Known about the structure:
Layout: E1 5-8, E2 15-18, H1 20-29, H2 39-52, E3 56-59, E4 66-69, H3 82-102
Antiparallel strand pairs: 1-2, 3-4
The structure holds zinc ion (2 copies).
Amino acid sequence: MYEDKTLTCKECGKEFVFTAGEQEFYAEKGFENEPQRCKECREARKNANRVERKLFTATCASCGGEAKVPFEPREDRPVYCSTCFAKMKEEQEGSSQSNVSSDSVM
Length: 106
Ligand SMILES: [Zn+2]
Ligand SMILES: [Zn+2]
């Protein structure tokens, strides 16, 4: 069994808890190193990586608003902003679900 461990963050020097659950997760994933940074610093680094990733700006085919996409928009493919994309996905999932329930004829 794992026990909570207190580690010191390499980045900000703050102490943080490497919880039993996280240790189990690390072991499962085969990570040999303990985390070097506290959660905040890890999150900050993750976010920094995200910002570094190039985003292309396109016009949303649905609402005409600004859409930021991680790929280069092509003219033959409509681009949607994250709001419209989520909405469409929701609708798609909803319709496929209703198809399943109406598919009772055997
Ligand atoms: Zn830190
Ligand atoms: Zn939109």
